[in-house]
Design goal:
This protein is mainly alpha-helical. The protein contains three helices and no strands.
Length: 78
């Protein structure tokens, strides 16, 4: 899901007068990609937080540390 859209690509699509539909499709694709990335990130964060809670309930220090590190890495990538 690593699509890197550039402003130049968008301008190329918009620049073609008769192909504004192509520009609209590109924008829709960009928005959909951003939305899916956001949803995936939120679900991953929620799952990791659940694992941290479980590790705390079970007093499992190694699982707590591992999942806390995973959460930290996820939040670093923002």
């Amino acid at each position: 899901m690593e699509n890197n859209y550039s402003y130049a690509e968008f301008l190329k699509a918009v620049g073609k007068n008769s192909l504004s539909l192509q520009a609209e499709k590109l924008l829709n694709e960009i928005y959909l990609d951003l939305f899916l990335k956001h949803i995936h990130r939120e679900q991953t964060k929620s799952r990791i937080l659940g694992l941290i809670d479980l590790a705390l309930d079970c007093r499992d220090e190694s699982a707590f540390l591992m999942n806390s590190e995973r959460l930290g890495k996820l939040e670093e990538n923002d």
